[in-house]
Amino acid sequence: xxxxxxxxxxxxxxxxxxxxxxxxxxxxxxxxxxxxxxxxxxxxxxxxxxxxxxxxxxxxxxxxxxxxxxxxxxxxxxxxxxxxxxxxxxxxxxxxxxxxxxxxxxxxxxxxx
Length: 113
Fold this sequence. Notes:
Distance between the termini: 82 Å
Shape: elongated
Number of helices: 4
Order of helices and strands: HHHH
Strand content: under 5%
Mean pLDDT: 83
CATH superfamily: PDCD5, DNA-binding domain
CATH topology: Helicase, Ruva Protein, domain 3
Number of strands: 0
Largest sheet: none
Low-confidence stretches: none
Radius of gyration: 26 Å
C-alpha cells in the first residue's frame, strides 16, 4: 500500500528526470547547430581560398577518406592565414600538397624459401 508521501516523491523524481532529459535534448540540438554553422564557415573559407577544380578534387577524395580531408581542410585554412601560400590554391598546388602528405611507400622484396 502506497502512502501519499511516496507518491509525491515519485512525482518529484519523475519531474526532475523529465527536466534533465529536456536539457540534454536541447543541448544536443545546440551542438548540432553549432557544428553545422562551423562547417558552413569552413566551406565558405575554402570557396574563397581554392579554385573550383581544387575543391572538386578535395570533395572526390573526401568520399573515400573523409577524416583525412577534414584535417587537410583545416590545415589549408591555417596555411593561408599564415601567409605561407598564395591564394587561390590551384588544383596543381593541391596535388603537390597531397603528394607531400602521402606516406612514402616502402619497397620490399618477398623471398620464398
